[in-house]
Amino acid sequence: MYDVVLLTLASERDASGGCGSGGACCGGATASDTGADVAGTATSVDAATGTDTGGTPGDADSCANDRPRVPVLACADALTARGARVQTVTARSDAEIDAVLAQLDGPPRPDGLTWPDTDGKTRLVVATASDGQLRAVLRRLVRRYAPAPSRRPADLRDDRTLPDLPPVAVLPLDPARGGTQRDLAAQLGLPRDPAAVAAAVLDGTPRRLDLLRNDGGSVTLDGALLGAADEAGRPLYWRARVEVDDTILTDGDEPLLACAVGNAGGYASLDDVTLLAAPDPTDGQVEVAVAVPVVVRSALGRKRVRLEVRRARGRAVSVLPREGKVPYLDDGVEGELTRKRSWWVEPGAWAVWVV
C-alpha cells in the first residue's frame, strides 16, 4: 500500500515574501523581516476525529493555530479507510516544501544527481487554495530535480531540461473556483470531492502535462496575462516586443492592451475578447496573443478603435517591455515586468493523478 503525504501551504497567496518565494507562508513575513524563526508543522492526524496526534508547533504568531482544513481531513479519512499510511504537512516556507518533496527522491545515481523515484510508493496530494499555491510546489519540484546545464545526463529527453516530475494529486480547497472563475483543476476536469481525489491517488494513472519554465526562475502551469487598467477600468496601454519562436507579434512600436501567454485556458479571454483560440496543456506548444488597438475610419470618415488580436504558437516566447513597468498575472500571482522575460515549454514534464 502507498504512503500518502497531504501537503497544505499556510498562505493563500504565492507572492513576494509568501510561500514559494523564500519566505514564510503565513502573512508574507520572512524570518529576516521579523527576526523570528520560521517553523512549520508536520502532524499525524486522526482522520476520524480531526485531532492532532503529534507534531512540532510553529512560531507564536497568527500561523501557530494552523490546522488541516475539512477537505484535507476528509481526504485523509478516505485514504486511511483504504489502508494508506497518511501524513499531513502544513508548510510555511520553501524549506518545508522541500522536506516533503525529498520523500519522492529515487535511489542514488552514479552521476550524483537527485532524481525522482519512478517506482516510488509515496504519493503526494497538494491541497490548494489557489493555482499559485500549486505552482509554488511545482517550482520547488523543478528546482529539486532540474540538473544544471553542465551536468545534463545522457538519459534526459532532448526536448527537456528536467526529468518527468513525480505526479501530484490536486485537492481544491475552494469549491467556487470550479464554477465561473475556473481554476486549473476545473479546466483539467480533476475531481474536487475529497473522496474522489483519494480514489485518483490510489487507483488512478498519471496524466502528463506541459510545463512552462521561465528565465525568472519560476514556472507557469496555466498562463500569464500582461497588462492592466486604471481605477476606472480604462485600459492602460503599454509597449513591448513580443516574439514566439521566429514570429514577431509586435515590435514594440505600437500600443498594446494585453498579452496572453497560455499553457491552459485560464487567460483565454479578456472581458468579451477572445485572446487564445485553443490553448492545450498537452500539445507541447505555448499559445501567445497580443491585443492591439487599431484606429480605423468608416466610409463617412469617422474614426473608431478596433481591437486586433494577433496569435502565434511555438516552443518559446519572449516579452521585452519598451518602457516602464508592465503589470501581469501569472497563475493568478501578481507581478511587474521590468525587463525581458522568456517562457519555454517542457513537454509532458509534470503530471496529475486522474481516474
General description of the model:
The protein is α+β, with helices and mostly antiparallel strands. It is built from 6 helices and 23 strands. The chain has helices spanning 31-34, 70-81, 94-101, 131-145, 184-187, 194-203; strands spanning 3-9, 41-43, 45-46, 51-52, 85-91, 122-128, 168-172, 205-214, 219-220, 223-226, 228-229, 235-236, 240-244, 247-251, 258-262, 269-270, 273-274, 286-297, 303-314, 316-321, 326-330, 333-337, 341-354. The strands form 6 sheets. The chain has a 6-stranded antiparallel β-sheet with strand order 9-8-23-20-13-14. The protein has a 6-stranded antiparallel β-sheet with strand order 19-18-15-10-21-22, with no helix packed on it. Helix 2 (70-81) crosses helix 6 (194-203). The protein is globular. The model is unreliable at 12-65 (pLDDT under 50).
Keywords:
six-stranded antiparallel sheet, globular, 355 residues, alpha+beta
Estimate percent helicity: 10-25%
**Quaternary structure of the protein:** single chain
Tell me the Rg in angstroms.
22 Å
Largest sheet: 6 strands, antiparallel
Unreliable sequence segments: 12-65
Residue share in β-strands = 35-45%
Form type: globular
How many individual helices? 6
**Secondary-structure element pattern, one letter each:** EHEEEHEHEHEHHEEEEEEEEEEEEEEEE
Average pLDDT level: 85
Count the E strands: 23
Question: Major sheet: order of its strands?
Answer: 9-8-23-20-13-14
Secondary-structure content class: alpha+beta
Our measurement of the CA-to-CA distance between the termini, rounded to an integer number of angstroms, reads 17 Å
